[in-house]
Amino acid sequence: MGKKLTISSIKKQKGVKPLVMITAYDALFAKLFENSADMILVGDSLNMSFAGKSDTISATLDQMIYHTNAVCNGAKDTFVVCDMPFGTYLNKKEALKNATKVFQNTPADCVKIEGGKDKAEVIKHLTTNGIAVCGHIGLLPQSVRSEGGYKVKGKSEEEKEQLLKDAKAVEKAGAFCMVIEGTKADVAKEIAESVSIPVIGIGAGADVDGQVLVFSDMLGFFEEFTPKFVKKYLDGATLVKDAVAQYADEVEKKEFPKEEHTY
């Protein structure tokens, strides 16, 4: 997409052009995405997409660092966001220690922190110590066990008011943008209009400042379930299965390798 975006240029996109964010976990897919994506998120969703876990909670900091380095190697000219995994930012001291480890051991451009007003103090501590932060409000995957599942936010006036407070607190703490997940579209729109930094939606309607999707969902590789908010742009699982089945068939029939594949 040309010159790599910076925090300043990302903030300037608000109200100008919707931001395109997609997840990636390795150099191969990151390279494929870099010409279309403004930002690549190395999400702790890799715990589900790659590791076969039922949620994101057991992802570790070392895993995130490993995959962030891989993504940065594949998409050197794309803004890369590293998810801070569950348990790594419980307080200011631990958050700074772990986010510093990410910055020292990867070329990541920022880290992402789940939580609103309750995490504002942590976010401020990071941003005042040289760590760029992308916030994350609304449905919080790392809280799925404590909340008893994935629950859409913004259904009540009370929830809307809390989300507005969360967004403003995250902005005030110094985050340069934020993700809003699993939130009623009209509420997400109001939240995006209430802050001066970009709000990137996932399952939050079209009236925000950008969108993010998990690549294995949108490309149809993840078959266990498809969230309502995901559009499948490719039937990836079927294409891969068909290709591998053809390969297996040709091997069994000794149709592969042919002369052109032989030294």
Can you tell me about this structure?
It is a single chain. The radius of gyration is 20 Å and the shape is globular. The model has no long low-confidence stretch (mean pLDDT 96). Helix 2 (27-33) links the parallel strand 1 (19-23) and strand 2. The chain has helices at 7-12, 27-33, 46-49, 61-74, 92-105, 120-127, 144-147, 157-172, 185-194, 215-218, 236-252; strands at residues 19-23, 39-42, 79-83, 110-114, 133-138, 177-181, 199-202, 210-213. Strands 1-2-3-4-5-6-7-8 form an 8-stranded parallel β-barrel, surrounded by 5 helices. 40% of the residues lie in helices and 14% in strands. Helix 2 (27-33) crosses helix 4 and helix 8 (157-172) packs parallel to helix 9 (185-194). The chain folds into 2 domains: 7-232, Phosphoenolpyruvate-binding domains (TIM Barrel, Alpha-Beta Barrel); 237-263. It has 263 residues and is of the alpha/beta class. Pfam families: Pantoate_transf. It is found in: Cytoplasm. GO terms for molecular function: 3-methyl-2-oxobutanoate hydroxymethyltransferase activity; magnesium ion binding; methyltransferase activity.
- Determine the structural class based on helices, strands and strand pairing: alpha/beta
Tally of helical runs: 11
Beta strands, count: 8
Average of the residue pLDDT scores: 96
Subunit structure: Homodecamer; pentamer of dimers.
Protein name: 3-methyl-2-oxobutanoate hydroxymethyltransferase
Keywords: Cytoplasm, Magnesium, Metal-binding, Methyltransferase, Pantothenate biosynthesis, Transferase
GO molecular function, one term: magnesium ion binding
